[in-house]
Design goal:
Elements (H helix, E strand, L loop, with lengths): L3 H4 L4 H16 L6 E2 L8 E2 L11 E9 L3 H8 L5 H15 L3 E11 L4 H18 L2 E9 L9 E12 L14 E6 L8 H10 L15 H5 L7 H9 L5 E4 L4 H6 L7 E5 L8 H10 L3 H7 L4 E7 L4 H10 L4 E9 L5 E3 L2
Parallel strand pairs: 4-5, 9-12
Antiparallel strand pairs: 1-2, 3-6, 4-6, 7-10, 7-11, 8-10, 9-11
Length: 345
C-alpha cells in the first residue's frame, strides 16, 4: 500500500536505496582522519595528524553552488560532471587562501528522488573531492516536491581547509614587481551561465551542433567541468613560493584579482598574453557581447592567477610543468594607477 507520504511525493524507500549506494562511493574519498561513516547526526574528522607542524592553525571554509549551469545539465540529462563543478567552486576558493583542503559536505535538493541519478551526481562530487584532496564526509539529500519540479534539483557544498596563520596568502604579501601567472581554465567553468543561456535562447543556438573552433557539441563544451587546481598549486603553497592566489569566478579577472592587490598597487594585465578559448568566441559572436562585458562575466581562459615574486618564478614554472599544468605570464604588479586591476591597451 502506498503511504500518504509517498502520495505527497516523497519516496522514503528510494531515499534509503540512494543512501546505501552513496556510502560505497563516499568511502573511496576518505582518509585516515575520517571517523565512522555516513549515518550519524554529524560528520567526524580528527585533526591530530593534520595539526602536526602547524604552529598557528587556521581553519578556512568556503561554500558555493553551481548556479544556472545546472539548468543545462538537467535539460541535457547529463549529470556525471556537475558534482565536480560543485567541489571546484568551493575547493579552489579554499586553496586560494593557502589552505590544505580537508573535508567536504554537500546538499542535494530534488523534486523527485531517482536513486540512479543521485548516484551519478554523487559520483561526480566524489571525483571532484579526490582531485581536490578532500574527504567527502557527509551531506544532506532532501526530496521536496512543490519546491522543485520533478526533474529539477539543486546543489550546494561546503569545504574546510587548514593553514598556518604565518603562511596565509593574500594582499598583505603582494609587492611591486610581482608577476601574474595565469593557469588555463577548462572552459566556462561555473560562472556566467545566465548570460550563456540568454545567448543560446536569443541566438537560437543548437546545443548539439559542433560550432567552428569547437571539438565537440556545444552542450558538451558548456558542461565541461570546472578545473581543480589543488594537485598543481598546493605544492607551491606548501613550499612558500606564492604571495597570493585569485580564483577567477563571477566578475572575471578584474573583480577577483582585485581582492589580492594592495591599495597602493595595480595588477596590470596583458590580454594578448594568452589565447582565448573558442567557446568564448562562439558565445561573444552569437550574443554580440562587448569585450568589456565578456571580461566582466567570464574567465576567458584563465581559471586561477598566481601572484609570484620574480625570485620564485623559475621554481614555480618548474612545479607547474611537472604537473602538466598549462600557464602563461599574463601581467605584473606595478605602482598604483587608476584602478586595482587594469588591462594594457
Amino acid at each position: 500500500m502506498t503511504s500518504q507520504y509517498e502520495q505527497a511525493g516523497v519516496n522514503i524507500h528510494a531515499g534509503e536505496e540512494a543512501v546505501q549506494d552513496i556510502k560505497k562511493i563516499v568511502a573511496q574519498t576518505h582518509d585516515s582522519n575520517v571517523l565512522g561513516g555516513l549515518g550519524g547526526f554529524g560528520a567526524e574528522y580528527e585533526l591530530t595528524s593534520v595539526l602536526a607542524g602547524v604552529s598557528q592553525p587556521v581553519l578556512i571554509s568556503g561554500t558555493d553552488g553551481v548556479g544556472t549551469k545546472l539548468l543545462l545539465a538537467i535539460e541535457a540529462n547529463q549529470h556525471a560532471t556537475i558534482g565536480i563543478d560543485l567541489v571546484a567552486m568551493c575547493a579552489n576558493d579554499v586553496l586560494a587562501q593557502g589552505a590544505k583542503p580537508l573535508f567536504f559536505l554537500d546538499y542535494i535538493g530534488l523534486g523527485e528522488l531517482e536513486p540512479q541519478k543521485v548516484m551519478t551526481i554523487v559520483k561526480g562530487i566524489a571525483n571532484g573531492c579526490q582531485q581536490a584532496g578532500l574527504s567527502l564526509i557527509g551531506g544532506e539529500m532532501a526530496e521536496m516536491p512543490g519546491i522543485y519540479r520533478s526533474k529539477d534539483y539543486d546543489l550546494s557544498g561546503f569545504a574546510v581547509g587548514l593553514a598556518d596563520k604565518s603562511h596565509l596568502l593574500g594582499a598583505m604579501n603582494v609587492a611591486e614587481g610581482d608577476l601574474l601567472i595565469g593557469l588555463e581554465s577548462s572552459g566556462v567553468h561555473s560562472n556566467g551561465y545566465s548570460l550563456v543561456r540568454k545567448i543560446i535562447q536569443d541566438a537560437d543556438l543548437d546545443l548539439q551542433r559542433v560550432y567552428p573552433g569547437l571539438q565537440q557539441p556545444l552542450i558538451d563544451e558548456l558542461l565541461t567541468p570546472t578545473k581543480l587546481y589543488y594537485q598543481a598549486v598546493y605544492p607551491l603553497v606548501k613550499a612558500g613560493q606564492l604571495h597570493a592566489i585569485a580564483h577567477i569566478t563571477g566578475g572575471g579577472l578584474a573583480d577577483n584579482l582585485s581582492r589580492m592587490i594592495p591599495s597602493k598597487l595595480t595588477a596590470l594585465i596583458d590580454p594578448a598574453s594568452w589565447q582565448v578559448p573558442a567557446i568564448f568566441k562562439v558565445l561573444q559572436e552569437a550574443g554580440q557581447v562587448s569585450t568589456d562585458e565578456m571580461r566582466q562575466v567570464f574567465n576567458l581562459g584563465i581559471g586561477m592567477v598566481l601572484v609570484v615574486s620574480p625570485s620564485h618564478l623559475d621554481r614555480v614554472k618548474t612545479g607547474l610543468k611537472q604537473q602538466n599544468t598549462a600557464y602563461q605570464i599574463i601581467g605584473k604588479v606595478v605602482k598604483r594607477r587608476e584602478q586595482s586591476v587594469q588591462y594594457q591597451a
